[in-house]
Amino acid sequence: MLQPRSVTLVQLVCAALGIPAAIAGSYSAYQTYFSNEAVCQRLRTAVVATMERKLPLDAKQALLRKDVADFDKNCGDGDPDARTVFQTAMQERPPAPKARMQLAAADTQLPSAAPARPAAPPVFGTAGAGERSGWIALSRREAGALVSNFDSAAISETSLLPLGTVLNARQQLPVWGEPQLDAANDPGKSQSLLPARACVRVLATQPGGNRLWAQVAPASCNGWVALGRREAGAWVANFLGFAISETALPPAGTILTAQRQLPVWSEPQLTAANDQTKLQNMLPARGCVRVLSTRPGISRLWAEVAPAACS
After folding, report:
1. What are phi and psi of 239, to 5 degrees?
2. Has residue 212 been placed in a domain?
3. Whole domain around residue 209: which residue ranges?
4. Residue 86, domain member (yes or no)
5. Do the domain assignments include residue 112?
6. If I label 189, which of 7, 15, 114, 217 is the partner at 20 to 30 A Cα–Cα?
7. Helix, strand, or coil here: 228?
């Protein structure tokens, strides 16, 4: 029979051997989960970069084929909108060559028509007068967290956007005839594609599944921002990139970097109080804009701006 001291020693040895095994198992699961998320992020970035390259369509699709297949297999269920965009890129076909007029003998048989190829979805806002709005996913889930598909507004599960907000798309997104509330998208409800950096105006919002949805209409990305403000009687500029003063306004085309978060308005706010119904969205701190025009106002100088790259 083992003595009590021997039993205690055996228990300590078993614990010493068991704890590292448990830690190793937890670490392995943790590593597998986040490694898969890293793979999905890498694939998403690689596909988007290839889609933006100026290459012949056949060459581009040849480069995309493997990454799109891997994304569809390993990541598509978690990001169905990206899956839709990537699959659409693979189905796109070059425009058919113009038919040439030929003289044929009476006994010449005309060749059979080639099978129709699926046409690429139209760009949102260019499909004609019948397309005034559509539904788009405001967000997606990555590693269990909610990630916004748009700049210029804070999107969360507890704070849906005010109607009239103008959003700027971070990447190409599918537009649907109705919200896609299931995990998988219904291809029959596909309406068009919203290009990266294009803008839309929110008409309605709706939660659903793992995504937050908004009914949107095409909108201009332009808006008005205050170039500076008065503090303790002194002029303070809101932007870097130009020596802004009340006697020196930046010329059209100047790129400015916001020193802090700023509201963007649909028109200049020329009175002391702002009209909140004209609030369009928010320009984040360190965000960049291109000046389109300028005008003075009461205690503030105004510029009409468009989103711009900071590089």
Report:
1. -135, 155
2. yes
3. 134-219
4. no
5. no
6. 114
7. strand
CA-nearest of 153, 297, 168 to 224 is 297
30-64 pLDDT per residue, tens? 444 445 778 888 888 898 888 888 888 888 888 88
Is 212 found in the same domain as 139? yes
Residues 6+ positions from 204 with CB-CB distance below 8 Å = 163, 214, 215
Nearest Cα neighbor of 280 from 267, 271, 261 is 267
Split at pLDDT 50, 70, 90, the class of 200 is very high
Which amino acid appears at position 20 of this protein? Answer: P
223-252 as b/e: b if 16+ CB within 10 A? bbbbbbeeeeeeeebbbebbebeeeebbee
- For residues 244 and 191, state if they share a domain: no
Q: How far apart are CA 88 and CA 219, in angstroms?
A: 24
What span, in angstroms and rounded, lies between the C-alpha atoms of 78 and 230?
48
CA distance 103 to 78: 55
pLDDT surpassing 90 at residue 93: no
Residue 53 falls within a domain, yes or no?
no
Q: Which of 166, 201, 219 is the last residue of a domain?
A: 219
Q: What is the CA radius of gyration of the chain?
A: 28
β-pair type (145-148, 139-142): antiparallel
pTM check: above 0.85: no
CA 273 to centroid of chain Cα atoms: 33
Could you give the dihedral angle defined by the CA atoms of residues 287, 216, 189 and 113, in that order, rounded to the nearest 10 degrees? -80
